[in-house]
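Subject: Sanity check before I submit

Could someone independently write out the structure tokens for this chain? I want to compare against mine line by line before I put it in a report. The sequence has 134 residues.
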Amino acid sequence: MALQTFFITFTFAKRLWDPFIKALHTLHAKNLNLLNKIENLQSIHITKLICNDPMTCARYYDYKTSCFCTLFNKDPSIFEQVCDFFFVTKFQICGNEHDHGLLWIKDAPIYGINTNEEIKIFVNKYISCDVSYY
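---
Independent answer below. Compare away.
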């Protein structure tokens, strides 16, 4: 059995997904007395839309993460060949959804067997870090 290659976490940045906010606005603006056009919504209005419909929020997030996971089966995948993956969905106290996942990548280097340089080259194909930000 191969060792897991990557541990990844997804979180739902609801406020940053314009199509999602537009959909919530279309669904609930009248009921919440939000007469502002979508372009004029303030943060408080967006919060009101999100808090009013947790079910749509959860379903949209699930749809988006499912779309991402289907990329693993495409040839070529964004992670070359994903042999297997596993995700668990959790909720923070405030209700925000997030997922933790494990990915198994075919022919990934193994710590303790491959050299540190081989591992570094492999990881840098997928994860880049611009140290100028730190």
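---
OP: Matches mine. For the report I'm noting this point. The first helix runs from residue 18 to 28.
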